[in-house]
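Entry, Tuesday afternoon. Goal for today is a structural model of the target with zinc ion bound, before we commit to ordering more compound. Inputs were pasted exactly as handed over by J.K., no edits. I checked the ligand SMILES twice against the vendor sheet because last time a stereocentre got dropped in transcription.
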Amino acid sequence: MVTRSKPVAAAGPGAPGPLTTPAVAPHGWPVWGHDAAVETLQGAVARDRVRHAYLIAGPDAVGKTALALAFAAALSCLEPPAPGLACGACRSCRKIGRGVHPDVQSWDLARQAATAEKSGGKNTSMTIETVRELCATAALRPMEGRWRVVLVDDAETLQETAQEALLKTLEEPPAFMTLLLLADDLELLLPTIRSRCQVIELRPVPRATVAASLVAAGLPEPRAVEVAALAGGRPGWAHRAAADPKLLQRRQETVDRALAWVAGSGYDRLVTAVRLGDTFTKKRGEVFADLETLLGVWRDALLLHAAQPTYLTHRGETAERLQELARGWALDDVHRAVCAVQTCIGDLEANVRPRLAMESMVSQWPTTTTSRPRP
Ligand SMILES: [Zn+2]
């Protein structure tokens, strides 16, 4: 089964510093973007129509955990200011904020690693033992409120046997339980699991919304705009990056690699394509991340060509270098390059041979007439 590597602990409970705790958005939940999803869940709480299982799917750090915890808070708040909202200050809200509420429990790969250290396994997927443990918890009556909320993050890594074990709980859920499955990729879950959940898909958040969330959390506006531009629509990543300069630096290194690939000669491009193609099986997540960045770089070349700098993902030196390269290309050629990267990502997801997919992609890029080595 495919596994995705991901950083632990998004802007969730226990994370230090004001920047890692999202401020409350206009709809009353500390969730930025995803207004339709928030409305659905707020409505479920307000009308007392809470389902026993939700599947919240979307890219890493897009806001799945923030949404799930806000939902848990609204379900458990002792003094809700309005139906569907949480006060953020009562005993229950504070416990959820600190990750210690006895009726709201989270499971993910990190927790599995911490509790199953003895097994010495690789911990790249959620096992049946973990599911048995969380199902046993799910069956316990809530201690403090009406609901027991069980969060299962990294759900896309659930082994097939683990998913089958989970099905039993989904088929006969305790009346007081709601299960929140959080997954980067919906397709990696069994159809029988998906059909028993209300599916809520989260898409990347507009850049202006990400910037607004950072400003609301106390970041000066120019810096918020800069971080939001690199975040790729993922508020969780933006908040972590705002608090951790190393994350921004690593992101810049990825961008620099993508830019060097784009600016390279036909031969150099092919060499990179073959190298990445050959490492794909072992470093699937990293290669996909590199390709997403590459797609952003080519899209920026297209925007620069079309004189639409407002929507650029990359600014400063990166944009200047791209502008220089784009001058040597026709608009159609740049557009074809963007499509070629999208096709390559789709091909890799469809299990086309990685080297073939990569080679085909670079063969469709326009040649670099103005390319010269960077000092
Ligand atoms: Zn409260």
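Confidence is low (pLDDT under 50) at residues 1-18, 370-375.
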